[in-house]
Specification:
mainly alpha, Heme Oxygenase, Chain A, 0% strand
């Protein structure tokens, strides 16, 4: 039976309540000040790969959209991350964080030290958006429903516990506090309108679950590689390398 829009929205929100990566133990460690400088650096390196892939994912989505209105609505997401000639984007802001924690920003941007599982998870998300239906692609972006809460907790926790945290280093998260609600208001409305059968609602819910798995897998990889007992796979960043200045 097809759910009403309100019932379906409640279903999507339950997915976030149960599966969003704010519940991962790595976030408790990070936000509570329990990460070592090198564990923070590992997070910055690996999360950059995800951030840098988001506009590529959005460009792949837009290349499949026939409706100019939908392309116009989606275009700001690419600009939010890539920036414009006048406004710095999220990728550049993330590199400010890399500077703050003492990493070589060119190394971070190269993605050479990214964990294999991070690369596989993020690349799978880009392929998902490229290959699945437009409804599933938009639904997968709805983890943004839950992002402002984790960004606010991250700002509070990092500011309270780490000397590197200031307005410049955390500018990515501060900007997402306003960007994510704007994006998700459009995306949620579009999904609720177009998921007009039970089958489409199931597909959209499964897409959102897939995206929560993508985010969770990245933290699983970080925790396994850099939190005791550390097991860093070949080719991934090794603590002490590509560090320019101390961070605490």
């Amino acid at each position: 039976m097809t759910a009403t829009p309100a019932e379906f929205e409640a279903r999507l929100r339950r997915i976030g309540a149960e599966r969003y990566h704010d519940k991962h133990p790595f976030h408790d460690l990070l936000h509570g000040g329990g990460c070592t400088p090198d564990q923070v650096r590992a997070w910055v390196i690996n999360r950059f790969y995800y951030q840098a892939s988001i506009p590529m994912k959005d460009a792949a989505f837009m290349s499949r959209v026939d409706d100019p209105a939908l392309r116009r609505a989606w275009r700001s997401r690419i600009e939010d991350h890539d920036g414009t000639d006048e406004v710095e984007g999220g990728i550049a802001r993330w590199l400010h964080l890399a500077d703050a924690v003492g990493l070589d920003r060119d190394y971070v941007a190269s993605a050479r030290g990214v964990l294999p599982a991070t690369r596989f998870a993020v690349d799978a998300y880009v392929r998902f958006v490229r290959d699945k239906t437009l409804l599933e692609a938009v639904a997968a972006s709805l983890t943004e429903l839950f992002a402002p809460k984790i960004h606010a907790a991250r700002i509070e926790g990092l500011m309270a516990n780490y000397a590197f945290a200031d307005d410049t280093s955390l500018s990515y998260f501060r900007n997402r506090l306003t960007q994510a609600p704007k994006d998700v208001a459009f995306g949620l409305g579009w999904v609720l309108e177009h998921a007009d059968t039970a089958e489409k609602q199931d597909a959209a819910a499964a897409a959102l679950e897939f995206k929560t798995d993508v985010l969770w897998a990245q933290l699983d990889a970080l925790h396994a590689a850099y939190v005791t007992p550390a097991r860093i796979p070949p080719g991934a960043w090794v603590p002490g390398s590509y560090v320019l200045t101390p961070a605490s």
